[in-house]
Amino acid sequence: MDTDVIVIGAGLAGLQCARRLQRNGHRVTVLEAGDAVGGRVRTDLIEGFRCDRGFQVLNPAYPAVQDWIDIGSLGLQAFGVGAVIRTSTTTATLAHPLRHPQHALSTLRSRHTPPSDLLAFARWIAPTLRQSATGPRPAQDQTLHDSFEEAGLTGRLRRDVLDTFLAGVLADSTGESSANYVRLLVRYFALGAPGLPRGGMQALPEQMETWLHEPVRLNTSARDLRHSGDGVQVSTDAGPLRARAAVVAVGPQDIHELTGQPALPTHGLTTWWFRAPELPQPGPFLMLDASRRGGGPAGPIWNTAVVSQAAPSYAPEGQHLIQATTLLDRPDGLAEEAAVRRDLERLYQGSTADWELLTHHLVEHTLPVQHPPLLQARPQQLGDRVLIAGDHRDHGSIQGALVSGDQAAQSLTRLLAG
Asked: What contacts 119, CB < 8 A, 6 or more positions away?
């Protein structure tokens, strides 16, 4: 045998799986087809600006992050816990009253937060807040849309804020995602202040790689995986590798090639990154558009932020970095730069003529589709020697990816011991 376990894919699930297997006493070889670790968690460094591939944040309230990641060394820079709401005539800041007391009175008095909606939101989130962080999930589930309707959450808080914010988080504007999945994410948002590592989101998987005894084999594609005698064999560009077992931790869209299992559907988005010489909007908050009649975005942009206001390390001193996100499940999700600029000018109420486009990321497979019911984390076993891991085996988040990878490693350890 060349190694004990081959892990295919160096995303968060694959890296956590390798770490746990290593702690359990196994020699692990990680293969990654790309030129860096991270999978979907990648950062481009462009002229001193850090541009993540897709707008992402790290929530320190995730239990798996607290247990398995050195958050302190990442230098997390927090966003404001709230949002700026832009309508056709007004701009309002809604913020967590305890974390941002200066906005407490205006938030509670805002037309976007009528008391009836706040009570309905409390009814909607209550079942999840009563759970422990790792406790059992509610047995009953439904779509996000239906859960809002059932709770009576039908007013401006939903139309102007929640629908738009959650669509950006889920890369899904349909309302068809699992309500229990969304409740878990909202619970973590309530408990933590999401932010960005000083070195970009890619600093997270890079930290995880440093804890491995054997470096990840980059630019190494796994072309074939099969059972072989008392183990498995993986064909790579550099030749075959044999091991006692393997874990497939690739994206849900790529599972079929190695396992024969059906590829799983995903949601996608695009992110535009601009350099601006002048500050267009002060404050570390995400901006949501509620300019359309009845609520929701009036243009292609679902959220935007001056990222360098929350994370100064993302831009050189004296410069400002702005991101804008569109969703691929919308007709205007592939809007051209000119349309995106026009929308940014409307939202920030100023010209973007002197803004420079740094890069534009089309992220077709941002997150796995997560229809109800939401199930417990479950690594998938293929035969006696192969497991599948990834956030699609739990729920689409950093928490889900880490938990899935860890559980796959524990399951495989038990299999190998038997």
From this structure: none
Rounded distance, CA 54 to CA 273, Å?
10
Please report which helix (H) or strand (E) contains residue 368, including its range.
strand 356-368
| Of 378 and 234, the one with more pLDDT | 234
Q: What confidence tens digit (pLDDT) does each residue in 131-176 have?
A: 654 444 556 899 999 999 999 999 999 999 999 999 999 999 999 9
Q: Where are the domains of the chain?
A: 3-42+202-264+373-417, 46-198+267-368
In this structure, what are the phi and psi dihedrals at residue 82, rounded to the nearest 5 degrees? Answer: 165, -160
**In sequence order, what DSSP letters do the residues of 257-275 get, joined into one string?**
HHH-PPPPPEEEEEEEEEE
**Which among 344, 398, 386 has a CA at the least distance from the CA of 67?**
398
CA–CA distance, 30 with 18 (Å, rounded to integer): 7
Q: pLDDT tens digit string along 179-188? A: 999 999 999 9
Q: Could you give the CA distance from residue 30 to residue 37 in angstroms, rounded to a whole number?
A: 10
Q: How far apart are CA 231 and CA 246, in angstroms?
A: 9
Q: How many other CB atoms are there within 10 angstroms of residue 10's CB atom?
A: 28
Q: Which whole-number Å values give the CA distances from 382 to 83, 117, 241, 389, in the listed order?
A: 44, 47, 19, 11
Helix axes 144-151, 115-129, angle to 10 degrees: 120
- Decide if 321 contacts 314 (C-beta within 8 A): yes
Burial-class residue 50 by CB neighbours within 10 Å (0-12, 13-18, 19+): buried
Q: List the beta bridge partners of residue 58.
A: 195
Residues 348 and 281 sit within 8 Å (Cβ to Cβ): yes
With H, G, I as helix, E, B as strand and everything else as coil, classify residue 23: helix
Residue-wise pLDDT for 315-346, tens only, equals 999 999 999 999 999 999 999 999 999 999 99
Note the pLDDT tens digit of each residue in 34-69. Answer: 999 999 999 999 999 999 999 999 999 999 999 999
Q: Which residue has the tokens 């690739």?
A: 250
d(CA 163, CA 88): 18
Q: Which fold has domain 3-42+202-264+373-417?
A: FAD/NAD(P)-binding domain (3.50.50)
pTM of the model: 0.95
CATH numeric code, 46-198+267-368: 3.90.660.50
**For position 127, what pLDDT does the model report?**
81
Q: Which of 406, 397, 403 is nearest to 134 (CA)?
A: 403
Task: Average the pLDDT over 263-288 and give the result.
Answer: 97
